[in-house]
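pls read this protein:
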Amino acid sequence: MKWIVGLLLLSVTGVAVADGPRQSTKVPRFDAAVERGVQYLLATDATVRLDGGRLTLISYALYKCAVPKTDPRVVLGINGALERSKSGVYQPAASYEHIYGAGVDAMLLADVGENKGEQYRANLQVICNYVQAAQRSDGSWSDSPNTPADVSMSQYGVLALWACQRAGCTVAPETVEKAAGFFLRRGQADGGWAYRPGTNEGPGAGNSTHNMAMAGSGALGICRLMLYGSRPKAGAQKKEKETVFAGTDAIQKEEEEELAPGVVPSAFPDYKAGISAAEMDGRVDRGLDWNRRFFEPVSKVEHNMYYYYCLERAAAVGELGSFNGQDWFVVYGDGLLTLQRQDGAFMTHSGPEIGTALALLYYMRSTDQIIKNLIGKGQMRGDRGNVFGEKKNTKPPSELDQLLASMDNLPINIDESDVDIADEVVRSVQSIEDPKELIGQKENLKKLIRHPVADVRRSVYWALGRTGDFALVPQMLEGLKDPNVDVNLEAEMALRFIARKPNGFGNSMDPFGGLDEKAPADQRLRNANEWRLKSFKQWSDWYFSIRPFEEKDGLDELEAATFAGVKANDESKTESKAPKN
């Protein structure tokens, strides 16, 4: 919540006109309120007070109000999100805000990017990888590993994953299910949610609040939408589905629900979640019921505008419809309208600019816009694998399948000059979008770790790391001893991904310590070896402290402790060229 508290605004002088008609709220007084709010934001000049996700949130609200993405205010938000995700590793604007910022960055890029966000898919995958790696073991997110779970921040973790998945990024369905499990387990007995469950920290002092009740309901509803699609509608029918199990002739026939018109399908149709759709629906409904019991159309809390945006999302994914016999949107919209100032702004604890942005997102029914865009078009698949078997109509073998199938025929003495094979391996590995496909190939990929071409080794470490397989940690440790710095960096990132430590142990991603290629070669080598030693020791200490004793997997503890085997030469490069996501 500190991110919400601290939000102040950006703006650039000059007023732009939207390049298309703004979606009407269908309530004239609300349309007028939106126009006044937009004009307030367009006329406000407070650029020195805005950075990071704060800027992105304002840009997102303006874009949802049909301010064109070419407007300087929207461009600033887009450029900021791209800058933070351009290097292959997401760089939060501030450590506390990391998941808040990642969430709004992902939402903006997914919505403004052409072809359902595909334009910025590489950047979105970087954000997605960061958010998945930052998820805690209980399925939550927080500002740091040592602080209690944060319902508000966990909501933005889910929003980030949903935005990335809609743009076609690789999202692990297990990550979504873990998040759903957190919201199910850590809710309050009265049906709401506290800010930091199990503590008395933050607003509400451990009790349910309007803000968190709607944040929890909305986030869990999104998890349900991603895992199962929309709630069943009248007219849904059953159809028979056949599953052919891999390596057998066995066919299992089962009935599955065929979606009625006007609903959103699951993002992971081949994934079998352990949490039922009915369980999630019931918990979302309990959150909405809490809001009914404690009816408050004019929010009185300090973060009042945050409440309306969370309410819009919970109502959209929970399909609230009416509220005590009245349209919820009108009931709460009229309450919100009483909070608008004469100049068009909506004041909140974070300042009038941020308050106005959140109010606009409510009136424009931001989440509802997204869902309507998904209906009839299908969601972009975030997970493309079938972990239980193969369908009859299997897709053609990937480049990696074809390459590994012919590995026995590869020449034995390949050198660095054999760029054709190196390029083929790199291209093949990068063509894989589903981590489950990589898991199935990991034994073959491990054979390429000793490949003489550094680009091949680097791509293999990238691929193996994205499997998230803890058993591969010893191989990743070996990558830290590779004579090529680009390979070292890829191994470091792979370990961060597997360990779900997006910042690792705080090591810089510049092994040369700021030295460029003009610096003396011996000094560059010394810096690189010191970086390798430090990284190797930190990760090996971590591994040996948590891995089962019997899982040495060929890595000798004495070698790990002494960093034996590192080659004292410099095949390193000035910059890392990590495979594009």
Remarks:
- The CA atoms of residues 399 and 427 lie 8 Å apart.
